[in-house]
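Private note to self, pasted from the team thread so I don't lose it. Backbone tokens:
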């Protein structure tokens, strides 16, 4: 099973972005996605932002991850 984490885009620069995933900041590739801006939410897997998600999706994603980790 592959697990992606939701993260908020903090800063974008030259095909990479700094994202905040529940307080942990990481640099990830955003080369698969277009039209990202700071404040957007993305799904991150293996250091790559694989999908843009809406603000409405983020709480549900966090709840699913919490359930999986318990």
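Design output:
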């Amino acid at each position: 099973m592959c697990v992606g984490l939701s993260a908020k885009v903090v800063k974008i620069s030259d095909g990479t972005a700094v994202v905040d995933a529940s307080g942990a900041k990481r640099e990830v590739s955003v080369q698969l996605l277009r039209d990202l801006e700071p404040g957007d939410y993305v799904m991150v897997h293996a250091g790559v932002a694989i999908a843009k998600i809406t603000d409405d999706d983020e709480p549900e994603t966090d709840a699913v991850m919490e359930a999986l980790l318990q």
